[in-house]
């Protein structure tokens, strides 16, 4: 039963052709879309999280996480070129492994997109608070800019941006890919400026000890900053809206990942070599403090109160903080401003990806049709947007960015794992199908992706590891309670009935 109810690839392609979205995106736009979705909270904020877990060894963490994403991207490219439709890993799994596993992947993608949007919202909050203090001298009370984890009550800036993005998506406000490209250019320019200013004054002594917490710390940081790469697979969710997807989707996936990896390594080197260094903050008795913990927040406050510089692992706006410390206060503020302007585009992109996955699952009958119904005026899936946005806003209000990123990673790693498995299975069961892009050395690349995903998953904090099976159990209850009985494939329907038009075809960039 576990591999039953496979939806034939031909039926998926026929459905997409009949009920598909308008194809408008090219290779360059997809690459910009991927970079726009990837460069965000991961590099602008989680650099401090990585420093607390691995110290200067976070350079290796970026390499490890980037490698796992690279081999997964090669697997994604083959499937996306063969099945250029919405739904990403969910659709690929449906076509290869069957409905039950496809449902589990789709359910896990909620962790990637919705929880990921919450994490980015919290990261944006840190930069907004820094901007208000740096430009206007306004110091917002801790109770209103942090959750209980850091001695506050509620993170109001994170609530604001989550609610705003939800509203914009619901009423149909979306920008063209050209506007998205401009916002991506702003983020890239900010990172280039950081690299140009930080690398020349880099102190090599700050790279020692390189791995203060050993390989466990390096892999733990890799598991967390894996979030810095999450988003490149959003390119595949736009496959149904892409011109010549067999060529352009693989280019978009791999090019966006390559550009982001290069930036991450250079930025990490500049941050580590700054006067702040990147050594983990220890407690009063020399104990290792967990990122996002109240103990770390208290120790950071004590260091600053004693007249010391705020350590890198303590900063909520890591890169802007580094530039201010090396003497570029105004430029640091400008970088913070660039992050403040650009990060909402990532929140928007993640919620966009979530609505596309829900739309596809509802199109298959696994979710109530009403949930993904399209508003007659706005032509957006307004119901599911409100549901997703409400959940993301609540999470952003009370949870720290690091924990949200870890929860998101658990779902993403499962989806990547299933994509790698699907590539190998499809090579066996349907070897003659046309593959516009073939994963090179697939019997090496796909197993490496599987091993990498498992290794990073097991390196997550225990709570994040447990989130996936608990979330999966909830998903199974819904599947057997509702989805299995209403599945189109289960009822012998391999085409979609005439219904509401699909959501508006424009890919949101930013506002």
Automatic annotation (TrEMBL):
It is found in: Membrane. Pfam families: AA_permease_2 (PF13520). The chain crosses the membrane at residues 27-46, 58-79, 100-129, 149-169, 181-204, 210-230, 251-272, 334-359, 380-399, 411-429, 441-458, 464-482. Its main location: membrane. InterPro entries: AA/rel_permease1. It is a multi-pass membrane protein. Keywords: Membrane, Transmembrane, Transmembrane helix, Transport. This is Amino acid permease. It comes from Sphingomonas quercus.
């Amino acid at each position: 039963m576990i591999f039953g109810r496979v939806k034939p690839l031909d039926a998926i392609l026929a459905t997409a052709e009949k009920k598909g979205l308008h194809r408008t995106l090219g290779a360059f736009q997809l690459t910009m879309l991927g970079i726009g979705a990837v460069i965000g909270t991961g590099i602008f904020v989680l650099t401090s999280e990585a420093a607390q877990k691995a110290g200067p060894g976070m350079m290796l963490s970026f390499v490890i996480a980037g490698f796992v994403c690279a081999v997964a991207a090669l697997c994604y490219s083959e499937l996306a070129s063969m099945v250029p439709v919405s739904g990403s890993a969910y659709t690929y799994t449906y076509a290869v492994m069957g409905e039950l596993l496809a449902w589990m992947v789709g359910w896990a993608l909620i962790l990637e997109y919705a929880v990921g949007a919450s994490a980015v919202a919290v990261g944006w909050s840190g930069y907004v608070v820094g901007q208000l203090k740096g430009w206007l001298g306004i110091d917002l009370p801790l109770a209103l800019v942090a959750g209980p984890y850091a001695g506050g009550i509620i993170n109001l800036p994170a609530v604001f941006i989550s609610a705003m993005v939800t509203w914009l998506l619901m009423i149909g406000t979306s920008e063209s890919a050209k506007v998205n490209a401009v916002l991506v250019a702003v983020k890239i320019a900010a990172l280039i400026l950081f690299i140009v200013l930080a690398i020349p004054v880099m102190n090599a002594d700050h790279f020692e000890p390189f791995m203060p917490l050993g390989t466990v710390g390096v892999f733990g940081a890799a598991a967390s900053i894996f979030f810095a790469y999450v988003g490149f697979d959003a390119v595949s969710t736009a496959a149904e809206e892409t011109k010549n997807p067999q060529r352009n989707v693989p280019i978009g996936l791999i090019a966006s990942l390559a550009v982001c990896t290069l930036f991450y390594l250079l930025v990490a080197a500049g941050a580590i070599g700054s006067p702040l260094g990147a050594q983990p903050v220890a407690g009063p008795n020399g104990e290792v403090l967990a990122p996002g913990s109240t103990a770390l927040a208290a120790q950071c406050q004590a260091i600053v109160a004693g007249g010391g510089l705020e350590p890198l692992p303590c900063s909520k706006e890591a890169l802007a903080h580094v530039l201010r410390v090396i003497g570029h206060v105004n430029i640091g503020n400008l970088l913070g401003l660039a992050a403040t302007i650009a990060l909402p585009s990532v929140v928007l992109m993640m919620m966009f990806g979530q609505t596309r996955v829900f739309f596809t699952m509802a199109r298959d009958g696994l979710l109530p049709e009403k949930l993904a119904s399209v508003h007659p005026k706005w032509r957006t899936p307004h119901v599911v947007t409100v549901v997703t946005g409400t959940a993301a806003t609540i999470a952003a209000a009370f949870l720290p960015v690091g924990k949200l990123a870890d929860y998101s990673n658990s779902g993403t790693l499962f989806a990547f794992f299933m994509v790698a498995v699907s590539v190998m299975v499809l090579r066996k069961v349907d070897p003659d199908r046309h593959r516009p892009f073939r994963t090179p050395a697939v019997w090496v690349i796909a197993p490496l992706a599987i091993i990498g995903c498992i290794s990073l998953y097991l390196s997550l904090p225990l709570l994040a590891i447990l989130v996936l099976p608990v979330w999966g159990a909830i998903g199974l209850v819904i599947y057997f309670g509702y989805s299995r009985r209403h599945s189109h494939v289960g009822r012998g329907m391999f085409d979609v009935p005439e219904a509401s038009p699909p959501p508006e075809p424009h890919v949101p960039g930013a506002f």
